[in-house]
Amino acid sequence: MDHSLDPSGIPERITRPDRSPLRAITWQSVIGAALISSLVAGAYPYIVLKLGFGPNASVVSAFLGAMFLNVTAYSTRGQNRFLNNVIQTAGTSAASTAFMCVVAAAFGYLDLNDTVEMHLKIAPWPMFLWLTCSGMIGVVFTVIFRRHILDDPRMVFASGVAAAETIEVLDSHPSEARHKMRALGLTAVASAGVVLLREGLGWLPTLYLAKPYRMGFEWSFLNVGSGLLVGINVGLSMLLGTLVTGYIIGPWVIGSGIGDDIVRGQIAPEYWDRCQALVALVKPAPDQALFISQHCGLMQNMHAQKYFPIVVFWVMWPATALMVTATFTTLFMKWRSIAEIFQDLHIERGFREKDIPLRAVAVSAVCLTILLAVIQHAFFQMSYLQTFVAVLASLPLMLIGMRVQGETNIGPVSAMANALQALFAVFWPTHISSNLIAAGIAGNITSQSEGMIQDYRTGRIIGSSPQILTYVQIATVPIGAAAVAIMYPILIEKYGLGGDGLVAPTGLKIANMAVLLSKGIEALPEYALLATIIAGIAGIVVSVIRELSDRAWVGWIPSVTGFGFALILPGELNIPIALGGVAGFVWRRFHRQTYDRYAITVASGMIAGEALLGGLLIPLLAAVGVHIR
């Protein structure tokens, strides 16, 4: 039995018919979409380069959109939810593309690494064209599988649900939703207060069970709220993944000496002795800190007993195989429903009126792929064949990313980028630049699909037209691309890359992966290949059991997606999600009536409060030199 969100709660809200007004596109929604998407996308590169991940753009955009419409469209309050869905979609789309500043950082790290011969700097204009084109491919690919993904009852898409609840509550008349507005406001304030105490004042440090492996509890209502939405099965599966990494795989990798081999493989031999001397310094000088960042790889982590980044270099291989085989097995077993998606000639007239015909989607995908091939050949000397392979391979990776996010509310963009890097290393092992470009293609397509499917979930709850949301998503991709092209060089000029500047951990991981894979499969850590094969088989077996058996105990089999992603995600993020899942289960079990009425609202407030303060306001203040702590 699946103990995630109750069927009487969310499902009845996600099957509403399309009831959006004919004029969802008004001057308020257009101007609001442009302003909010520019604001969110402009702030995103700083946040991502600093933290390695981005905040919940969907909920943030919905909240800001409601504020904008309460000023510019107050007379139509009660019907503004359709306009705000447009604004929220625009903000999510722009932020999804802006996330790809991690690839710009990967090229930056590669440029700083003089142990490789390849150095490539992407100028702002080529960066804009490249991200715009690849992002639009992600949009049109998502249209194809929209119904298949959203119709799967296991795909919750917690952020999309939270955004819809935020939009509906803030658009309702106070007399109609007084109690929900109060619950949303109180939980949002509480969530923001926790962020202020944690990030601003430093009064809520993470509680660790095994600090070297980042296994602990971070004070985060955002993650607790996500757990409340995704349910107890996924939450406990992620807890299990954390325990396996922190208590089994992690200590074994470090204790067996495999960790030392991983560290040595990241450092050029000529820098080994100097790195050993520098990482031992308590307070290295700025130039020494920069050298450590550029040349010493994971040695500093090993010296400081921060083992998790080292362990990730081993566990990422079986974790990725587990998620990939599980997703492909599920898709294969549902081949009939997927085949129906491509039967364009048999689509009902009513469906055509509110969605884009698949024939138009296919033509757009082909044209955009050809354009992307021309752009990459002209600016990056990437062959046309490499572009076509990268785009085709990104399609199944995109599906994996959407399913992972649907269950866990966390998008594995970097993991999917790494997966395509591994594929490219098989066919073009020495092409480091092509490897990074391929990572960018997979990352951008996956990022767009994950953001867009959340918007579709929000739209289905509200009753918006998916066709309108698709057009809005396409129109605002260039805003996110412009944010990367403009803001990345400005931020690096001001703060620097690595050392005491913007660390960009995701970009560093992608760059290190490209260098590692250029050395061939023999460069994989010891036993990683064997573990990958075993994990791949396990993903197939578990998925078959979950799909074929209707026994009650099947619902308690761990979520392969949640477990696999938790292996490579810090435990301090996973444990609060598990706590939220358990809390939701207990709440539903003992007070079903209030759970059905307030669970989504409470979770949405938890997500919105931290996303607004911790993900937008505090980073913006820091960017202009105002530090709360």
TrEMBL record:
<dbReference type="GO" id="GO:0016020">
    <property type="term" value="C:membrane"/>
</dbReference>
<feature type="transmembrane region" description="Helical">
    <location>
        <begin position="468"/>
        <end position="491"/>
    </location>
</feature>
<feature type="transmembrane region" description="Helical">
    <location>
        <begin position="183"/>
        <end position="204"/>
    </location>
</feature>
<dbReference type="GO" id="GO:0035673">
    <property type="term" value="F:oligopeptide transmembrane transporter activity"/>
</dbReference>
<feature type="transmembrane region" description="Helical">
    <location>
        <begin position="86"/>
        <end position="110"/>
    </location>
</feature>
<feature type="transmembrane region" description="Helical">
    <location>
        <begin position="25"/>
        <end position="47"/>
    </location>
</feature>
<dbReference type="InterPro" id="IPR004813">
    <property type="entry name" value="OPT"/>
</dbReference>
<protein>
    <submittedName>
        <fullName>Oligopeptide transporter, OPT superfamily</fullName>
    </submittedName>
</protein>
<feature type="transmembrane region" description="Helical">
    <location>
        <begin position="307"/>
        <end position="328"/>
    </location>
</feature>
<feature type="transmembrane region" description="Helical">
    <location>
        <begin position="53"/>
        <end position="74"/>
    </location>
</feature>
<keyword id="KW-1133">Transmembrane helix</keyword>
<dbReference type="Pfam" id="PF03169">
    <property type="entry name" value="OPT"/>
</dbReference>
<feature type="transmembrane region" description="Helical">
    <location>
        <begin position="382"/>
        <end position="402"/>
    </location>
</feature>
<keyword id="KW-0812">Transmembrane</keyword>
<feature type="transmembrane region" description="Helical">
    <location>
        <begin position="565"/>
        <end position="587"/>
    </location>
</feature>
<feature type="transmembrane region" description="Helical">
    <location>
        <begin position="599"/>
        <end position="628"/>
    </location>
</feature>
<feature type="transmembrane region" description="Helical">
    <location>
        <begin position="224"/>
        <end position="249"/>
    </location>
</feature>
<feature type="transmembrane region" description="Helical">
    <location>
        <begin position="527"/>
        <end position="545"/>
    </location>
</feature>
<keyword id="KW-0472">Membrane</keyword>
<feature type="transmembrane region" description="Helical">
    <location>
        <begin position="422"/>
        <end position="447"/>
    </location>
</feature>
<dbReference type="InterPro" id="IPR045035">
    <property type="entry name" value="YSL-like"/>
</dbReference>
<keyword id="KW-0813">Transport</keyword>
<feature type="transmembrane region" description="Helical">
    <location>
        <begin position="356"/>
        <end position="375"/>
    </location>
</feature>
<feature type="transmembrane region" description="Helical">
    <location>
        <begin position="122"/>
        <end position="145"/>
    </location>
</feature>
